[in-house]
Fold this sequence. Notes:
Elements: H1 2-16, H2 22-39, H3 44-47, H4 51-61, H5 66-79, H6 83-88, H7 91-98, H8 105-121, H9 129-132, H10 140-151, H11 160-169, H12 179-192, H13 198-211, H14 230-233, E1 250-263, E2 266-273, E3 284-285, E4 288-292, H15 299-307, E5 321-328, E6 332-342, E7 357-361, H16 362-367, H17 372-382
Parallel strand pairs: 1-6
Antiparallel strand pairs: 1-2, 1-4, 2-3, 2-7, 5-6
The structure holds iron/sulfur cluster.
The site of iron/sulfur cluster has 15 residues, from α11 and α14.
Amino acid sequence: MKAKSGTRTKSAVSRSEDLQSVVGKTSFRQALLRWFDEYRRDLPWRQAEEAYAVWVSEIMLQQTQVATVIDYYERWMERFPSVYELADAEIDEVLELWSGLGYYRRARYLHSGAQRVVDEFDGRLPSTVSELKKLPGIGPYTAGAIASIAFGAVEPLVDGNVERVISRLFALSGDPKRGSTRGQIWARAEELVDPDRPGDFNQALMELGSLVCALRSPSCQSCPTRQWCLARKIGKAEAFPESAKRAKPLPMRARACVVYAEVGDQRRFLLRRRPAKGLLARLWEFPSCERAGKTWPTLLELKERLAEAPGVKVEGPIGRTMGTVEHVFSHRRLRLRVHQLELPPSAADEPMSDDRWRWVDEEALADVASAALLKKVRKLWAGS
Ligand code: SF4
């Protein structure tokens, strides 16, 4: 009798630690949700689990740290509290509010997505993953987040944190961003998602990856899911997931010119709006020209760029070089050589007839929709 009951106990324990079994999945979900209920961070977007708030926060959180996003999110929700205000806004204002968050395509997608939601869905975001994915900028991850958190749909999601946690729980080898490994991670996430609290479960997995299962030195001792974790059991938590081989960003060379004029007691700067498509689309910059590869654009090209500005005449050579700044975009490594040029006050006196160009004073320069690159150039200017 004793032996029989001992066998039963052993098998029950092993089943509860086995994520393939129903018992194991249930215990895992309970442990993770208990931990989440106790340790979840009090983040502003968690106070309003409505679809629009989830959408905005999830898009902002892509490629940006939580601590940075909080201020941006609060400013955004104050200015655009619903899809209607966002859909009505001018894209320039949207970009201005996004200024400094980087990856500006995200802001453009939110804006055009809001217009679609108002036009096609009567102002309400759709609730299914398949409908959500039809909106610009919404991929499987964001669709899963909105569907599960805002609508309680039993849908999985996989972001970088979930990818890491699941790779370790199941000791999955292979590049988590590609092919069969990516498919396996999504399949595991789908099997695990809690049928009663899918939104909380998904947030709990992300929170676990962010707070406990860190990329380096995960805190396995205090991890609520350690008993299910294969990577921990074999003593190789940090070996998963395999680091993905990323393509090296391609080189790019550019020249920019800080063109300024002293008007009364104010210094004014010439800015150019970049084209509607391509790198840093529609953002303001110190006028520049660029080339893919390692060859610098010529000073003549830069002069021709400046000559496009209405009323600006550059006679004689471009001014001295202030220095070079470097900036890495997701797919480009840019080196930008910065020049300066003072023009007579009359150049900055007239209002611009072309909305691709403008003069701004020093104070306004900080508020203009700008990329981190423009800030680097300003810093160089301030130190010159
Ligand atoms: S036990 Fe360690 S490696 Fe496994 S999920 Fe927890 S923190 Fe991550």
